[in-house]
Specification:
The chain is an alpha/beta fold. Helices cover 40% and strands 18% of the residues. The chain is globular and about 70 Å long.
């Protein structure tokens, strides 16, 4: 196995490093290549996950006689470099990446479908859904992340509130300064954090078809979306003030860490900020609108290049090596996100904090990976900020939906 390092911004060097790295593939994904095969797989990874992939690659090389070359790149460069280099024949056979790249990768024609076969049942359904586009699976998932309700056990106890109103009552009984800290990114807006509350009104950002894939049809218009907007207004500056555009990420964490708010909605990335709250519980987000709160779930995994000259060999490496428990465990230990591999997720969920985030992800939905998703954030965030600040909820929401529909055509 060989390892290379590609530095950001040096496209020519990347091309040279990756040139000439194809060879003959075995006849089937199940049958190993002949001993001494000259076939080579190139895998793009970031530094964090390189050692975990290397362990699986060593066994793969021993079994097949093929060579696996790991090219280390900055994660931030992977998507654009993959889209640019695959059509030229200079890209990798496999790259690590995030699920919300999928729409752009499919549109660019740079990824191929994969078939997990019997291994499909080993993975969390929400992770498989995230890596599916137009009913086809395009990547091997390995990790999940989402937001959940985090609560100060010393203030409100360990039990989860089932509804927003119950959450408020629990905080008031505890004598809290405010019931919850909700990040709105200040006056920028944070529809990502708010999404679980929005979906509890039955107002998804996009409509999903019968396969579960997202369409380009806006799903948050109509009565359900306007009901969420009215709720947002009632909890904003013109109402209770529980949700405020003065709360950014740092202020959100300080309100929770100081005990000013016994609840917050955050992801596992924020847990290290709560050193002053020794006893926390993590639960799914409570419902504000009567339906299950379904936050966005982010998934990371491994994509197969559409231009791989060793596609069957690459498929074998994904399905028979990276999709196995040992490799999934190594990936988790290298980058401890919630595992997409169900048996491992159940194992690490012995930690109640991880269990809470896992339960929230199981209620959640993949953040849409369709290209249209990139067009919604500015208008969506702005509408929420205006409503929280006191603007007419129905009119503001309707205008936002109309503007989105016009922009998306």
């Amino acid at each position: 196995m060989r390892t290379q390092i590609a530095f950001a911004g040096i496209a020519a060097a990347s091309a040279l490093l990756l040139a000439g790295c194809s060879g003959s593939a075995p006849e089937t994904a199940e049958e190993p290549a002949d001993e001494g095969s000259t076939a080579e797989l190139v895998v793009w990874t970031d530094e964090e996950r390189e050692d975990a992939i290397a362990a699986a690659a060593e066994q793969f090389e021993a079994d097949t006689g093929a060579t696996v070359t790991l090219v280390q790149k900055n994660f931030e460069d992977l998507r654009n470099d993959f889209i640019a280099q695959v059509p030229t024949g200079e890209g990798p056979d496999i790259t690590v990446g995030a699920h919300d790249w999928l729409g752009a990768l499919v549109t660019a024609g740079v990824v191929d479908t994969i078939d997990l076969g019997d291994a499909t049942g080993d993975f969390e359904q929400v992770a498989l859904d995230a890596m599916t586009y137009d009913g086809q699976l395009y990547a091997l998932p390995y990790s999940l992340e989402t937001v959940a309700l985090i609560q100060n056990v010393d203030m409100v106890g360990p039990d989860a509130p089932a509804t927003w109103d119950e959450l408020v009552s629990m905080a008031q009984e505890a004598g809290a300064e405010r019931p919850i800290a909700v990040n709105t990114a200040g006056e920028t807006g944070d529809a990502y954090t708010m999404y679980g509350l929005q979906t509890s009104f039955g107002a998804p950002v996009f409509v999903q078809d019968e396969t579960g894939s997202y369409t380009a049809e806006i799903g948050m218009g109509g009565a359900n979306g306007e009901a969420f907007a009215q709720w947002l207004h009632e909890n904003g500056s013109a109402g209770t003030g529980y949700i405020s555009t003065t709360v950014d990420y740092d202020i959100n964490n300080e309100l929770f860490n100081s005990g000013a708010a016994p609840f917050t909605i955050q992801g596992p990335w924020a847990m290290s900020a709560y050193a002053d709250v020794p006893n926390v519980a993590v639960h799914p987000i409570p419902s504000a609108g009567g339906e299950t709160a379904a936050p966005f779930v982010g998934v990371q995994g491994f994509y197969l290049s559409s231009q791989s000259e060793n596609a069957l060999l690459a498929q074998e490496f994904l399905v028979n090596y990276l999709a196995k428990e040992d490799a999934q465990r190594a990936l988790y230990e290298a980058d401890p996100r919630i595992p997409a591999f169900t048996a491992l997720a159940d194992e690490v969920a012995s930690d109640p904090v991880i269990a809470g985030f896992l339960a929230s992800s199981q209620n959640g939905v993949p953040m849409p990976s369709i290209p249209e998703m990139g067009s919604v954030w500015d208008l969506w965030n702005a509408a929420e900020v205006q409503i929280i600040g006191g603007a007419d909820p129905a009119a503001t929401w309707k205008q936002m939906v109309a503007d989105l529909e016009a922009e998306l055509g």
